[in-house]
Design a protein that fits this description.
8 helices; two-stranded parallel ribbon; Rossmann fold; about 250 residues; alpha/beta; 7-stranded parallel beta sheet; binds nicotinamide-adenine-dinucleotide; single chain
Length: about 250
């Protein structure tokens, strides 16, 4: 028996990285997955490789588009919110536009998606929401992650609030807090550093295990949280960080 047989699941930011790995893992466990992303090209390649994963181009910051997308969803079991962006810098380098952009992509996107899909979950008297936060949040502060850390801490608050408000509606809401994960955007961050080799070593050194996580390792936790095996877990932030938070 597969762990997510016949569950209807929406995954945001599924074009690459953790979202993509999670969409694939969910599909392999028997779920009916709708993968969304702003990037039509990466979604198309996901669908070409895994034809049973449905794809839909969606800008997670466009509330009207989200409402329209969610209005067409019939039954929903799990919403997996992966969309996120890293602003590099301290408060000194963070202009108002950077702060706003970070909050729009990382937090408002989740507010929009959850607000649009929650009424269906309430009506079903069942639902499950999983949000991607980060170790860099209310769990840990790290250099040059001012706006990013603030947004990821906001996701922790948002997650716990929804878990508390809708527990009697049989709706669970949890967050995943990864350490550093080997994804395309991490490679971009390394390439953009003044000394990419040093940046790579520094990123790896942050994890006492001496390596990065793979997106598939994060996806494995996402499968557990989406499955009925984790039915007693809600309002929890789950670190998965190679010891970074010890
Ligand atoms: N990679 C890491 O080290 C790491 C660590 C902790 C947390 N996270 C979090 O995990 C999540 C995924 O990160 P990743 O590194 O796996 O992916 P990534 O950064 O490589 O990819 C992000 C995806 O989001 C999509 N996207 C960007 N803006 C969008 C928008 N407005 N609407 C819809 N989609 C949009 C992009 O097209 C892309 O496919 C993020 O929330 C990130 O903050 C990542």
């Amino acid at each position: 028996m597969k762990k997510l047989e016949n569950k209807n699941i929406i995954v945001t930011a599924a074009g690459q990285g953790i979202g993509r790995a999670t969409a694939i893992a969910y599909s392999k466990e028997g779920a009916n997955v709708i993968a969304t992303d702003i990037n039509e090209k990466t979604l198309k390649s996901l669908n070409e490789e895994f034809s049973n994963i449905k794809v839909s181009t969606l800008d997670s910051t466009d509330n009207d588009a989200i409402k329209d997308f969610c209005s067409k969803i019939d039954k929903i079991d799990v919403l997996f919110n992966a969309v996120g962006y890293v602003h590099h810098g301290t408060i000194i380098e963070c202009e108002e536009k950077d702060w706003n952009f970070s909050f729009d992509i990382n937090v408002k996107s989740m507010y929009f998606m959850i607000k649009a899909i929650l009424p269906k979950m309430i009506k079903q008297n069942k639902g499950n929401i999983i949000n991607i936060s980060s170790i860099v949040s209310s769990l840990r502060g790290l250099p040059n992650r001012f706006a990013y850390g603030a947004t990821k801490a906001a996701i922790v608050g948002l997650t716990k609030s929804i878990a508390a408000d809708f527990i009697k509606n049989n709706i669970r809401c949890n967050a995943i807090a990864p350490g550093t994960v080997h994804t395309p955007s991490w490679e971009d961050r390394v390439a953009a550093a003044p000394d990419p080799e040093k940046a790579k070593k520094d990123f790896i050194a942050r994890q006492p295990m001496g390596r990065l996580a793979t997106a598939e390792e994060i996806a494995a936790l996402a499968v557990y949280l989406a499955s009925d095996e984790s039915d007693f877990i809600t309002g929890v932030v789950h670190p998965i960080d190679g010891g970074m938070s010890i």
